[in-house]
Design a protein that fits this description.
The protein has about 350 residues and is of the alpha/beta class. It has 14 helices and eleven strands. The protein folds into two domains: about 160 residues, Rossmann fold (3-Layer(aba) Sandwich); about 140 residues, Dehydroquinate synthase-like, alpha domain. Helix 4 links the parallel strand 5 and strand 6. The longest helix has 21 residues. It is globular, with a radius of gyration of 20 Å. The mean pLDDT is about 95. The protein binds adenosine-5'-diphosphate (ADP) and zinc ion. The site of zinc ion has 5 residues, from helix 11.
């Protein structure tokens, strides 16, 4: 199948797609003096044997995404003699991808790595774009770099072993791509939500591909997230991040929080007179088809607003929201906390 080219200013690379990726990675690795797969304890037993290389296995879960793991991984890589002509293969979800990307960017001032994302969210989003990072007690992804992989290799069939909640997690970003840029994608996905849970590859495969085309274009235009082009990817994320933070990053995974954020931001857009009610209903209809409980009672409003105040995207003490104007078109709006607070009770209504 044809690959998608990401034209990042730091260099172009391909997103390869389909069952033949394992063979392609094996071929690629032949050009290096050695290759090491890094994975986690859930993914390694399932898919590790598809590649004939040694494998280093991390503990699964967000808790592993810390500086300590990087230090351990650097020791491990050095012990195995990985050098400037070695290749590291990240096989796993966002946690593995972020950790390997960051370590590869600093190990011996940077070595080659590729991504084989195995979760839905990593396949459509975090595996592409070159953002790496780990958490510290002070914040999520507080330490990170921009470091594009040498290639991204996606086999959607690995999604068949994902837990249901991980499908929901990915649907957040997929519906987001529809709302920000692609009405046709939005329609297909919302009509086929249950096919995502069943991992019907006839639906899921093309949807992933489309998301990657959109993300590839956006990242190519704004690799380092500085021109505002990439900012539209933050639809659903202003409220979404605030919800994650207000609940200590424990209760909701990222995609769930993004789905909740998309609901709140669509309603906010409507209340501001930017989104007709028919379109709001369509967005709500799609979101409610996802297997997620959209209740907001557990949220502490003060915690949410204090998180909104700390949002990286804020400018001139206003909060940045990427709000839908129609399906396929969003617009940035800067609002004071007071303006948002006025609508809070209405946007969280059941
Ligand atoms: P993300 O959702 O950001 O990609 P993780 O890397 O933490 O986050 O992955 C979520 C969970 O799913 C982890 O427990 C991981 O081990 C597991 N996982 C990843 N890919 C697969 C897969 N293809 N099949 C089964 N479990 C998987
Ligand atoms: Zn996101």
């Amino acid at each position: 199948m044809e690959s998608i080219v990401v034209q990042a200013p730091s260099g172009a690379y391909n997103i390869n797609f389909g069952p033949e990726i394992w063979q392609q990675v094996e071929e690629l690795a032949k050009g290096y003096d050695q290759a090491l797969v890094v994975s986690d304890k859930n993914v390694a037993p399932l898919y590790g044997d598809r590649l004939p290389f040694p494998i280093y296995t991390l503990e699964p879960g967000e808790e592993t995404k810390n500086i300590q793991t990087i230090a351990e991984m650097v020791d491990e890589w050095a012990e195995r003699g990985l050098g400037r002509y070695s290749l590291v293969i990240a096989l796993g979800g966002g946690v593995v991808g972020d950790l390997v990307g960051l370590t590869a960017s600093v190990y011996r001032r940077g070595i080659a790595y590729v991504q084989i994302p195995t979760t839905l969210v990593a396949q459509v989003d975090s595996g592409v774009g070159g953002k790496t990072g780990v958490n510290t007690p002070r914040g999520k992804n507080l330490v990170g770099t921009f470091y594009q992989p040498w290639g991204v290799y996606i086999d959607p069939s690995v999604l068949s072993t994902l837990p249901e909640r991980e499908i929901t997690n990915g649907l957040g970003e997929i519906l987001k791509y529809g709302v920000i840029q692609d009405p046709a994608l939005f329609q297909v996905v919302q009509e086929h939500i249950s096919d995502f849970y069943d991992v019907d590859l006839r639906i899921v495969g093309p949807a992933i591909r489309r998301c990657l085309e959109i993300k590839g274009d956006i990242v190519g235009a704004d690799e380092l997230d500085e021109q505002g082009v990439r900012r539209i990817l933050n639809h659903g994320h202003t409220f979404g991040h605030a919800i994650e933070k207000a609940t200590g990053f424990k209760r909701h995974n990222h995609g769930e929080a993004v789905l909740m954020g998309m609901l709140l931001e669509a309603r906010l857009s409507h209340l501001l007179g930017m989104l007709p009610s028919a379109v709001l209903q369509e967005i709500e209809g799609a979101l409610f088809r996802v297997r997620l409980d959209y209740s907001f009672e557990h949220l502490d409003k003060d915690e949410v607003f204090s998180a909104l105040h700390e949002d990286k995207k804020n400018r001139a003490s206003k909060i940045s929201f990427i709000l839908p104007r129609e399906i396929g078109r969003v617009e940035e709006v800067l609002l004071s906390a007071g303006e948002v607070e006025k609508y809070w009770n209405e946007v969280i209504r059941p």
